[in-house]
Amino acid sequence: MMFIEYYRKDNFVEIKKFQLKFFDVNCYLINYKNNYFLIDPGSEYRKIKNYILEKKIKLDFILNTHGHYDHIGAVNDLVTEFNIPFYIHEEEEEIIKDPEKNLSSDFNLDGLSLKTYNLIKGNYVNNFLNKDIEIMNFPGHTPGSILIKIENCLFTGDVLFKGSIGRTDLPGGSSKEMENSLRKIKTLDKKLKILPGHGPESIIEEELKNNYFLQNLD
Question: Where do the domains of the chain lie, and which CATH numbers do they carry?
């Protein structure tokens, strides 16, 4: 695991980013109003665990942007180790339970099927767990892909990257749904900071100017 000393502390948000070896997934450790949680712990369970223990962090929960293997690979072990809940959108339930749909069968001989999880329901949650976290369903990469908004930070998973977007040819993907989601992204606050599931950070304003997929919607 490459630990990126990406540290932001403004508007009560502290963010540390782990760039995991498996597909270079960005896993984020968030401290927001004294609540610690992980976004998308896709692999390298031991290194994530050791960091949390070393820093004496009390982890409260895990929140995932979607259910593909490269984003959920360390979830089971972390849930067990820290006795914490795991949250994911209800439209991802079939994906996290099915090794073929979450693609773990392509990389893991046994496959991965998550058994312990809590489902987020609906297209929009204004105050997730009463913690001032906004959850928005933006399907296309997968049916239950979500964007997570915390203050001026937007965690986009595999929906939106710097200069690109997520694939729509994987199980559960839909190019039509992705187009609809991209149209909604164009209506978001232009100053929001994008923290994606892969690659570097950006802002909405920059993507509106430079991202081919946002510029070339029908």
Answer: 2-215 (3.60.15.10)
What is the residue type of 161?
A: F
- SS3 of 18, please? strand
Query: What predicted TM-score, i.e. pTM, was given to this entire model?
Result: 0.94
> Which residue shows structure tokens 């949390």?
52
Sheet holding 2-10, edge to edge: 2-10, 13-19, 26-32, 35-39, 59-63, 86-89, 118-120
Which burial class, exposed, middle or buried, applies to 127 when counting CB atoms under 10 A from its CB (0-12, 13-18, 19+)?
exposed
How would DSSP label each residue in 35-74? EEEEE---S-HHHHHHHHHHTT--EEEEE-S---HHHHTT
CB atoms closer than 10 angstroms to residue 137: 20
3-state secondary structure of 93: helix
Cβ atoms of 211 and 164 closer than 8 Å: yes
Q: Return per-residue pLDDT of the chain as tens, 218 residues.
A: 455 545 556 567 899 999 998 888 999 999 998 899 999 999 999 999 999 999 999 999 999 999 999 999 999 999 999 999 999 999 999 999 999 999 999 886 678 999 999 999 999 999 999 999 999 999 999 999 999 999 999 999 999 999 999 999 998 999 999 999 999 999 999 999 999 999 999 999 999 999 999 998 86
